[in-house]
Amino acid sequence: MLLIDSEKKDRFMAETALRVIGGKPLYGDIQVQRAKNAILAMIAASIVVEEGETVLRMVPDIEDVERAFELLRAVGARVDHDKLTSTVRIDATNITSGLLPEAITSRFRGSVLFLAPLQIRLGYVELPGSGGCDIGTRKIDFHHRGFARLGANVQYFEDGRTIIDLEGRRFRGTMLYLDYPSHTGTENLMLAAALADGQTILENASVEPEVVDFGNFLNAMGADIRGLGTNTLFINGVDRLQAIEYTPMPDRLVTGTMMMAAAISGGDVTIHDIEPSHLRIVIAKLEQMGVDIIVDGESIRVRRSRLQRLNPINIQTHPYPGFPTDLQPCIAALSTLADGTSYIRERIFENRYDYVDALLQMGADILISQSNVCIINGVRELRPARISADNIRSGAAVLLASLATNGESIIDNIYQIDRGYESIEDRLAQLGADVSRIHTELRPLPAL
After folding, report:
1. CATH 3.65.10.10 domain span(s) along the chain
2. DSSP code, position 431
3. Average pLDDT, the chain
4. CATH number of the domain at 36-246, please?
5. Which of these is catalytic: 133, 194, 254, 398?
6. What pTM value is reported for the model?
7. CATH code reported for the domain at 6-33+250-444
8. Is residue 133 annotated as a catalytic residue, yes or no?
9. For 97-101, 268-272, 330-334, which range has the lowest pLDDT when averaged over its residues?
């Protein structure tokens, strides 16, 4: 551990990392957090409520949620997050600004979800840029085209800014079609149409469970959205939405990650209060790999002996109900220990293989073919290493790989993991893993 005198310490900040001592099977029962990808849309939608408090229950304490709260405060909302009860209260009565600060949006892809509600409340929104995981092309121009068809005026500037004006602060119902069933695109346009004049038909909408949950949230607020869970939504505009209390769905991606943690470590883990039907493809693929899975109501039990070699697997990512791109890095980590060759085809984000270098450092045998297929030749064991989390899901992948080693690994840049996973070290430690948060190198504080 690095020691410096107190005077110098004031001018430095410590980096935080995860220390993982692998080789321990996992046993026990856990519950997972609520779904980030539903909650972020709900937080943004609270802006349209002109009176009262929107109350969200069981909100995880993760970095992407904190960025969403920062954006709410930047545009004039009041936010109270009681971390002891995981309850959030949002009062958007005094929304004053449609400018989304770049210092926040550059770190937070979910900032695009603020476009529709700010147009509804103020008649305009200015977006300098959006951040998040660098996993490939994630254009948002189809959001803009949808707003334009709903009656907004979209202006692009040479400095990268986009300003969207909505004359009269009222969208007009129309026919919309998404070239790709994006969940953020569906959520943005669904909210805009919910408060438009007339009916909107949205074709090729996302059917992801988080989108359905967000639609149920809007309907509870007074919206009239029909067809949730199908590719065609019929949305009849209403005059206003009201403040409600709501508990979002469980996070299927965190659930899938914990299932694979049990599989890669060995042991016997039961995950409670979830929706197994959201993970049918994941369950099927893990069973093909030889993992024993028992579904019992709202629980999933995952069992595997560490002495048992995993079977190789073929995976192709696809929008829901296909295999989720967000769990592709995790099952790749699992495949590194299979008895044979696995083939993974990423069809959504071209940079989703950014975890490969870290797994190679840990002794994996991986090749990316010219046709962009990830070919994984299973090895008998992985070795501990010092690696970095490049984004939320690749961070989860290297964490899983670290659990399977026999030794100490250090994972840097865990801000990325913290963006999507609440206190992941505590959840794993609850199951018997040796994972802790440590301070490593000290670096100068940024200049004010």
Report:
1. 6-33+250-444, 36-246
2. T
3. 92
4. 3.65.10.10
5. 133
6. 0.92
7. 3.65.10.10
8. yes
9. 97-101
